[in-house]
């Protein structure tokens, strides 16, 4: 029998044969094409059409859209060639969820422009983190100096970006005190307000001093402490308001550099120190207050020197250093805190007590304690003497008597609002600072000389936070998020660095990095949109302006905790705390799930997962947590989570801005012509009529940022009578373009806009408010190119006879018969006659001073040299394509009616009067 020959095994029959693999080049090509597709979708717009019956989409087919998509593909290709992981690109599926040709939950609509930018920031950051970068060769400066210089650059860019929004709030009042010190050498401010000293840096009206009670000599002293005013006085003397901004930028940058150095000392890690520095510098609370004329920024540096003193005491217990002079400097800094603001006395007292306790365990404690206390003791005596000299009593709270100083019942709401409100909450606007409580626990758990530092910080911060939230106005008036916490933030950088050291697992550090990406994205949004329009606000708003801007298709405002939504007598109610609990629980669950998955993967594969995989998992879990949170909160709020009006206007704006586009019916899975898409953008806004008449001028309907075009509007009502007014502007604007009996709106009423407008607002009297239940809006046509007179947005509109005037800025003052051009200012107004005409006649009347008024429109211009009270008639050409004219008015000088007529209380700075003839 012949021997059996072994058979050769081929690749197709081998049990151990490897499965076919996609070549790396093909994977890269797929990744780039995937990126380009996601980038194109990210530039589109999605909205509900046919009165909510369908979902429509518009994708631009323009050179700009192609360039943006191509650049995204090139960037990803470069990162891949440098060694980046492709896995984070899978997160771009979020950008595609709103475009699915099927019904989708409202939460999936979050991932459209501009919120989709957060997805891109996370993906690119995750890819960059997986690149094996070579160490950079940096200039031979000490690391704290680099940190301070980099912070100075970032703060300066932000200061420039939001410059039109500053100074505001109480800043001018602090500067008034500075002017009184420099010019009058006193603190009596009544004469400074009367002279209008503030006009050097503030265009508004500050004729009324900010005070609650006069001094014992009858003079008016500001309610605000004079410390920061005296501190910035040399800078104001040299460079005015801009000099003050530069000085405060330097102070904040020094604080950032010192925070970096102290974080490195406490944690022993340069990387952790950089994370703590970034969490501080990128936090909008710090970023937007680094240059504002408030006491909080300088107080942050001083409190940080107090924490430095606690760290120095620990170091001297080990080194046995016996020099006393550094403690004199720490005492000098601490002595200045109460002069900045009375509430800072709590911080000074807490720091002082802890420093003395720690000095008792150092070498030469008596000399050090004496050096530390001598200046604060003298300062405390002088501080009390200050109140006795001005008000006749040693009571630091006496300037505030007559105001609502607060109550313990305010504390729960204040604590919730200060940390979680979407407008003023610290953690909502700076998620990276969630690392602070984590770092406190981690440092307390860690053995070493700084184990008690978190407890010491809590001893300093807790009484201060309780006091701040005890006040009725814990949000600080017109300001950026959590301004009253700015004094604590530089010190918080040390604790945030502790969280980075404690996160030894890759999953923990990826989550911290993700929080930093979101924080940076919010900071960019707040500082870049309309030169800071979203950065500073007051409680006149209920929902955060940035939340409204960031998501135009899904209702992010109702999905985040909102303190002011249901507040009554500073008590926000249970729903506010439940919404906070939902967000905290879902984010915590996502973090716990990520840690569990990563650990199981480590046990399964016996190695730590790669950065790309961990980053992708983190992004996916956090996205799920966000969508879950907003969905739950929407249910609690009783809303469906969609923004049909905002989404429709966003889509129409894009349709009017591009020449070519791909229009899609996502519900019907078909392609549309652009004109057909515009015709299907029928919008229905519903409301519940008031059962009892209420006298108020709140708008019945508001349609935000309406693009230039022709529209038809009609209302539905349940009988009754009354009047309706349709106009442009804010909900309480007194002017309207159409004012008719409510019956006229039973049929379609035409409204035409030659420019984009801030909002279409429909208001009604008591009778109309009791019967009108819906508003239907239909776009007839959009304007683009020469048919649109400006790319700007009209802030308000006024009808003057048969002509509508659209005011493009806030530098004009409309009145029923005409409008004033602001003094020494330029303003723009678009005029649209009802009927076609070649020119529009304007009457320009000068104020009671000689003036030069310049008018210009397209290729036409006219310069009027006017004597006091002189009038001139001007013919402005009307463009044939648009049927309108955009006219720029420039007034070389101006006057204040109150200065001319002693009986007038009008403090506006006016140039020339314009009326339509």
Features:
5 domains; 917 residues; 29 helices; globular; single chain; alpha+beta; disordered N terminus; 6-stranded antiparallel β-sheet
Structure notes:
With 917 residues, the protein is an alpha+beta fold. It folds into 5 domains: 24-133 and 642-662, no CATH class; 163-502, no CATH class; 530-637, no CATH class; 687-783, Jelly Rolls; 805-916, Galactose-binding domain-like (Jelly Rolls), CATH 2.60.120. Helix content is 44%, strand content 16%. The chain is built from 29 helices and 24 strands. The chain has a 6-stranded antiparallel beta sheet with strand order 14-15-18-23-20-21, with no helix packed on it. Strands 6, 8, 9, 11 and 13 form a 5-stranded mixed beta sheet that branches. A hairpin with a 4-residue loop joins strand 1 (45-49) and strand 2. Helix 3 (116-129) runs antiparallel to helix 25 and helix 16 (411-420) packs across helix 19 (453-470). The longest helix is centred in the first third of the chain and has 35 residues, at 233-267. The protein is globular. The termini are far apart. The model is unreliable at 1-17 (pLDDT under 50).
User: What form results from the Cα inertia axes?
Assistant: globular
The count of helical stretches stands at 29
Strand content: 15-25%
Biggest sheet layout? 6 strands, antiparallel
Distance between the terminal alpha carbons, to the nearest Å?
121 Å
Rg estimate, integer Å: 31 Å
The overall pLDDT average reads 90
Give a quick precis of the structure:
The protein is α+β, with helices and mostly antiparallel strands. It is 44% helix and 16% strand.
């Amino acid at each position: 029998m012949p021997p059996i020959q072994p058979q050769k095994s081929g690749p197709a029959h081998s049990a151990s044969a490897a499965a076919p693999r996609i070549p790396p080049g093909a994977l890269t090509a797929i990744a780039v094409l995937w990126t380009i597709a996601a980038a194109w979708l990210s530039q589109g717009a999605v909205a509900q059409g046919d009165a909510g019956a369908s979902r429509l989409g518009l994708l631009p087919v323009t050179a700009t859209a192609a360039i943006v998509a191509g650049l995204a593909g090139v960037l990803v290709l470069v990162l891949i060639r440098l060694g980046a992981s492709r896995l984070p690109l899978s997160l771009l599926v979020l950008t595609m969820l709103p475009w699915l040709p099927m019904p989708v939950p409202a939460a999936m609509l979050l991932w459209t422009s501009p919120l989709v930018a957060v997805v891109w920031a996370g993906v690119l950051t995750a890819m960059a983190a997986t690149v094996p970068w070579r160490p950079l060769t940096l200039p031979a400066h000490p690391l704290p100096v680099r940190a301070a210089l980099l912070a100075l650059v970032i703060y300066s860019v932000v200061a420039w970006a939001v410059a039109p929004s500053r100074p505001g709030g109480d800043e001018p009042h602090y500067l008034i005190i500075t002017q009184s010190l420099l010019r009058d050498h006193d603190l009596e401010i009544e004469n400074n307000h009367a002279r209008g000293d503030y006009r050097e840096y503030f265009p508004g009206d500050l004729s009324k001093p900010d005070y609650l009670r006069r001094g014992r000599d009858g003079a008016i002293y500001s309610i605000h402490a004079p410390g920061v005013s005296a501190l910035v006085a040399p800078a104001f003397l040299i460079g005015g308001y801009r000099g003050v901004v530069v000085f405060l930028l330097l102070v904040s940058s020094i604080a950032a550099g010192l925070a970096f150095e102290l974080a490195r000392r406490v944690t022993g890690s340069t990387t952790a120190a950089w994370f703590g520095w970034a969490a501080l510098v990128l936090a909008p609370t710090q970023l937007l207050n680094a240059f504002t004329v408030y006491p909080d920024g300088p107080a942050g540096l001083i409190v940080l020197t107090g924490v430095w003193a606690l760290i120095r005491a620990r170091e001297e217990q080990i080194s046995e250093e016996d020099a006393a002079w550094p403690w004199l400097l720490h005492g000098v800094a601490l002595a200045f805190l109460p002069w900045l603001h009375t509430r800072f006395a709590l911080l000074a007292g807490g720091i002082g007590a802890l420093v003395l306790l720690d000095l008792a365990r150092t070498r030469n404690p008596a000399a050090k304690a004496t050096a530390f206390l001598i200046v604060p003791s003298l300062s405390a005596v002088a501080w009390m003497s200050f109140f006795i000299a001005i008000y006749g009593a040693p009571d630091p709270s006496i300037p505030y008597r007559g105001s609502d100083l607060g109550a313990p019942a305010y504390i729960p709401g204040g604590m919730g609002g200060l940390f979680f409100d979407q407008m003023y909450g610290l953690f909502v606007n700076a998620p990276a600072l969630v690392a602070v409580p984590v770092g406190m626990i981690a440092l307390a758990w860690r053995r070493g000389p700084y184990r008690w530092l978190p407890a010491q910080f809590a001893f300093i911060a807790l009484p201060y936070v309780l006091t701040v939230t005890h006040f009725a106005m814990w949000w600080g008036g017109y300001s950026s998020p959590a301004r009253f916490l700015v004094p604590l933030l530089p010190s918080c950088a040390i604790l945030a660095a502790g969280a980075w050291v404690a996160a030894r697992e890759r999953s923990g550090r990826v989550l911290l990095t993700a929080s930093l990406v979101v924080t940076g994205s919010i900071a960019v949004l707040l500082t870049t949109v309309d030169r800071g329009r979203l950065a500073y606000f007051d409680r006149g708003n209920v929902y955060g302006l940035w939340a409204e801007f960031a998501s135009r298709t899904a209702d992010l405002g109702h999905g985040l905790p909102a303190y002011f939504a249901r507040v009554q007598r500073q008590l926000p109610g249970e729903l506010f705390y439940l919404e906070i609990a939902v967000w905290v629980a879902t984010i915590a669950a996502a973090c716990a799930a990520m840690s569990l998955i990563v650990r199981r993967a480590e046990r399964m594969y016996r190695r730590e997962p790669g950065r790309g995989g961990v980053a992708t998992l983190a992004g996916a879990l956090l996205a799920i947590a966000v969508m879950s949170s907003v969905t739950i909160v929407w249910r609690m709020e009783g809303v469906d989570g969609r923004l049909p009006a905002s989404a429709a206007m966003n889509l129409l704006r894009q349709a009017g801005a591009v020449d070519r586009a791909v229009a899609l019916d996502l519900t019907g899975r078909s392609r549309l012509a652009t004109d057909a898409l515009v015709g299907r953008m029928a919008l229905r806004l519903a409301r519940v009529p008031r059962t009892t008449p209420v006298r108020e001028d709140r708008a019945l309907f508001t349609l935000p940022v309406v693009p230039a075009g022709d529209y038809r509007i009609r209302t539905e009502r349940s009988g009754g009578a009354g009047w309706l007014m349709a106009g442009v502007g804010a909900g309480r604007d007194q002017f309207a373009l159409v004012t008719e009996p409510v019956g006229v709106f039973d049929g379609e009423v035409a409204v035409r806009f030659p420019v984009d407008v801030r909002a279409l607002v429909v208001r009604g009297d008591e009778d109309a408010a009791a019967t009108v239940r819906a508003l239907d809006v239909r776009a007839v046509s959009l304007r683009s190119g020469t048919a649109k007179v400006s790319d700007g947005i009209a802030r308000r509109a006024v009808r003057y006879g048969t002509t509508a005037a659209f005011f493009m800025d806030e530098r004009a003052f409309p009145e029923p018969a005409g409008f004033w051009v602001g003094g020494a200012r330029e303003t723009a107004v678009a005029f649209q006659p009802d009927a076609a005409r070649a020119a529009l006649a304007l009457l320009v009347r000068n104020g009671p001073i000689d003036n030069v008024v310049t008018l210009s429109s397209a290729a036409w211009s006219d310069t009027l040299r006017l004597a006091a009270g002189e009038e001139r008639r001007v013919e402005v050409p009307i463009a044939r394509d648009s049927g309108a004219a955009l006219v720029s008015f420039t007034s070389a000088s101006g006057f204040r009616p109150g200065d001319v007529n002693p009986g007038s209380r009008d403090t506006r700075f006016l140039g020339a009067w314009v009326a339509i003839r």
